[in-house]
Write a structure and sequence with these properties.
This protein is mostly helical. Helices cover 62% and strands 0% of the residues. It folds into 2 domains: 36 residues, no CATH class; 39 residues. It has 5 helices and no strands.
Length: 105
């Protein structure tokens, strides 16, 4: 797409949310134009603004269990898995503070 959007700097999350809401129609037009001219790609915005995502392979049995748990809670599967991962990492940090890992020999 020839003209790229430059996002303003936001003072806080509320200001950013308001901006995205107020510009949603314009952004939809840019999205549809990119889809029509073949420049729409997965993660284009994320790459342009330095955001990253990672792919984690999960055992099918674990994925099924996580999906079932997310459904019970009325949550999106990916958001639920992100939350579980975050909680586990935070818990591990606390354990490491109490029981520091010994260096590998």
């Amino acid at each position: 797409m020839a003209n790229r959007r430059v996002l303003p700097k936001f003072a806080n999350e509320a200001e950013e949310a308001k901006w995205w809401f107020e510009h949603s129609d314009e952004l939809d037009e840019h999205f549809l134009a990119a889809a029509a001219d073949g420049t729409l790609r997965r993660g284009t915005i994320a790459r342009r603004f330095g955001l990253s995502s990672h792919i984690i392979h999960i055992a099918p049995k674990d994925a099924e269990l996580a999906k079932a748990q997310a459904d019970k809670r009325g949550l999106e599967y990916e958001k639920y898995v992100q939350s579980l991962l975050h909680q586990a990492l935070e818990q591990q940090e606390k354990v490491q503070e109490v029981f520091p890992a010994e260096p590998a020999a």
